[in-house]
Specification:
Layout (H helix, E strand, L loop, with lengths): L1 E5 L13 E5 L4 E7 L13 H18 L7 E8 L2 H5 L2 H10 L5 E6 L9 E8 L1
Parallel strand pairs: 4-5
Antiparallel strand pairs: 1-2, 3-6, 4-6
Helix pairs in contact: 1-3
Length: 129
């Protein structure tokens, strides 16, 4: 697989995403359903945004690893949240995770009216191999 990052500007770098990612010659593509703060028993979290973000990331990593892919090869990551304001108070958690795995992904943040049950955040990704 070959990846090419397209960034006509530099300002997005501080926001932990890129403008576009071109992938050529992939061996596989993994489309992951939105990952949230749901535990192993299927119970939705009632915790605050930061705790839900952390658990959502952990659940996402688990799916990626189980499928035999790597976080560094995430090329698309959409964030759905019930409160952008609340999300950005703990956005450093997300940014540190992106930096730790050297992820260069196209991203969109969407504020939605609600998510399933008590959930505040959902991470939807595409990973290549």
């Amino acid at each position: 697989m070959e990846k090419r990052i397209i960034n006509p500007w530099k300002w997005q770098n501080e926001r932990s995403y890129v403008q576009a990612v071109e992938v050529t010659k992939p061996e596989g593509t993994l489309y992951i359903s939105g990952q949230t703060a749901i535990d192993d028993d299927g119970k939705s979290s009632t915790s605050d945004m930061k705790a839900q973000l952390i658990q959502s990331i952990e659940n996402l990593e688990r799916v990626i690893k189980e499928a035999g892919y790597e976080c560094k090869n995430i090329v698309r990551l959409n964030i759905y949240t019930t409160s952008s304001e609340e999300l950005f108070t703990c956005f450093d958690v997300f940014q540190n995770w992106v930096a730790e795995h050297n992820i260069k992904q196209a991203s969109t943040v969407l504020e939605v009216r609600s998510l399933f049950e008590t959930l505040k955040i959902e991470l939807e990704v595409t990973v290549v191999k």
